[in-house]
Design goal:
A: alpha+beta; elongated; B: Rossmann fold; 4-stranded parallel β-sheet; globular
Chain lengths: ~160, ~425
């Protein structure tokens, strides 16, 4: 059974309950709870979404409406690393299209897809607030500025190293 | 410029990182809190901030003291109220709040404490965009230090006033920066804006009185209380009070952000602080305050970057973060990029915005790709007028989206005509 189908751990369920109790209404914890599941699992599978909905006392459809609304919540599996290349205006002016083409070519995927070795998911992202160092990108939790093709090539090599 | 004239960023040092609680206090921090909680009534704090002429730095520019004045006056102990910092900085081209939060998070904490005291709110929330990982870490750390120092929690300084701050880490979507959509998001719903009235000040988060202020706005408060409203009002050049964080991105020599007197001329910001255009590039036009402000061309360079002057030039001060269009970048391509953003970020609640913005994007796609027709210009113009008129859509998202389009259709009429006559982008073919 894949991790996406295994029930959430008791600890995680307890953490979600605590988040819900800290809010005036449990649904106020929706985003925090879904983020928590994603932080542990990498993405939010339907069985896990159902479990969170159950803890928060919401219908699964109601919670899925939230999960699918926010672009940083993943309802499909992603790779071990996520590259988000800014596609907003300042980065566009500073040449992000060329970087996008380079990433697609090097990774052999289109934006929104994951490499065959499950190492990298490539997504576009709105302005990252790093416009004075455009083009910018976010790789997992790390912000990069003044991105060029050598930076990308080096980074991809690092990210492709198999997990320990 | 002297130290005292850039209060917001004086303590920011990229090498040493943000000041800890002790360093913050040594540099003058918490002095305003002592003054306010020990010697001022909440209504007096509102009055001081009103007299300082501080206006919201998030884009709309509403008077901060005036915004607070609509909140019911009961003490925090008697009524649940919320003070919310809007840290959902997502206006393309804008990178000022991240600088403030990463550089001096305690300043935001103290600003929130002062605002909360003024409106007598016991609950503080920082609504932080999910991509700001470093800011999140530093805010959590600052809040922990402030709690440890007794600046957050129960009965602060023995004043009887209690206040604490929770960081809500969001998960994307530009519309969350709209204050009523932000409240909806905090309540665990799809972040669609709400109709006003009721205004958040009377019926906000979970129905309780709530104030939503921008990070830069709140970060000004410790300095206003510590140095007085007259000092703050005097920092500005022209009608507005204080300093402003201005920024420039695009093909300039030194893209960046600078704290300057509010009302600094646009030319000084671009030519002196940003160092002018890069060699080989000329300035074609610019968006003065983020993606949702109207284009101005080089005839506007001498305008003062204050709320009234930018409006007089046909645009808005917005976030004060300018995006430069150079003479080697296609204006139609830039508009296409902007409208792709707005179409994608429409919350989908009201039909004109949900269906109109993607139509605009498709028309621009076609023109850029060389399949545009002359009638498409009329269609774009019709959308710019229809969606650009407040009241035709549920919130300000579509009018914001139409500001660069309406101005761009006028300023770049020749480029649009060339794209249609020449069956595509002349700059792209040249590249």
């Amino acid at each position: 059974m894949s991790i996406a189908e295994q029930p959430l751990s008791g600890d995680l369920r307890a953490e979600i309950r605590a988040l819900a109790q800290a809010e005036p209404h449990p649904r106020g914890a929706s985003v925090a709870a879904l983020r928590l599941v994603q932080a542990h699992m990498g993405w939010i599978s339907t069985p896990h979404l159902n479990e969170v909905a159950d803890v928060l006392g919401m219908s699964a459809a109601d919670l899925d409406g939230i999960a699918t609304y926010f672009n940083l919540l993943f309802r499909r599996p992603v790779g071990r690393h996520v590259i988000m290349l800014c596609d907003s205006v300042s980065c566009w002016i500073m040449g992000r299209e060329r970087l996008c083409a380079h990433l697609c070519h090097t990774l052999d995927i289109q934006p929104g897809q994951t490499t065959a070795d499950d190492a990298i998911t490539f997504l576009p992202i709105v302005c990252l607030g790093h416009c004075d160092h455009a083009p910018a990108m976010l790789v997992d939790d790390t912000l990069y500025g003044d991105v060029d093709t050598p930076t990308l090539d080096h980074l991809i090599d690092t990210l492709r190293e198999p997990p320990p | 410029m002297s130290h005292a004239e850039r209060p917001l960023t004086a303590m920011i040092d990229p090498v040493t990182g943000p000041p800890d609680c002790a360093a913050y206090e040594r540099a003058g921090g918490w002095q305003a809190t002592r003054t306010a909680l020990r010697t001022l009534a909440p209504a007096e704090v509102v009055d001081i901030v009103t007299r300082s002429r501080l206006r919201g730095r998030g884009g709309a520019g509403f008077g901060t003291g005036q915004k607070w004045s609509f909140v019911p006056r009961e003490p925090a102990s008697e009524r649940c109220k919320y003070l919310i910092a809007n840290a959902d900085e997502m206006e393309p081209g804008t990178f000022k709040d991240r600088w403030l939060m990463e550089g001096n998070p305690l300043q935001l904490v103290e600003g929130m404490l002062l605002a909360a005291y003024a409106i007598q709110a016991g609950h503080g929330i920082i609504f932080l965009r999910g991509e700001y990982h470093l800011a999140r870490t530093r805010l959590h750390d600052a809040i922990a230090q402030a709690r440890h120092g007794g600046w957050l929690g129960q009965d602060i300084l023995g004043s009887g006033f209690s206040f604490d701050i929770h960081v809500h880490v969001s998960a994307g979507r530009y519309i969350c920066g709209e204050e009523t959509a932000l409240l909806t998001a905090l309540e665990g719903r799809r972040a669609t804006p709400r109709s006003k009235p009721p205004f958040p000040q009377t019926g906000g988060l979970w129905g309780a009185p709530s104030v939503v202020n921008n990070v830069e706005t709140l970060s000004n408060l410790p300095h206003i209380i510590a140095n007085g409203p007259e000092w703050f009002a005097g920092l500005g050049i022209g009608p507005d009070g204080g300093t402003k964080i201005y920024g420039v991105s695009g093909r300039v020599r030194r893209p960046g952000a600078w704290e300057l007197p509010i009302g600094t001329p646009l030319r000084e910001i671009i030519e002196e602080h940003a160092g002018g255009m890069q060699p080989g590039y000329g300035l074609r036009a610019l968006l003065p305050g983020g993606a949702s402000t109207a284009f101005v061309d080089d005839t506007a360079l001498d305008m003062a970057m204050d709320y009234a002057s930018v409006e007089k030039a046909g645009s808005r001060l917005g976030t004060g973060m300018a995006i430069i269009l150079d003479d080697r970048t296609c204006p139609v391509g830039m508009l296409r990029n902007l409208e792709h953003f707005f179409a994608q970020e429409s919350c989908g609640w009201c039909t004109p915005c949900r269906d109109g913005l993607p139509w605009v994007e498709r028309l621009l796609d076609a023109i850029e790709a060389g399949t545009g027709m002359a009638e498409d210009i009329d269609q774009l113009d019709r959308h710019a007028r229809m969606l650009g008129t407040p009241g035709h859509t549920f919130c300000a998202h579509a009018p914001g989206a139409m500001a660069p389009l309406a101005s761009g259709l006028k300023l770049f009429a020749r480029d649009f005509a060339d794209h249609i006559a020449g069956r595509g982008c002349p700059l792209r073919h040249a590249a």
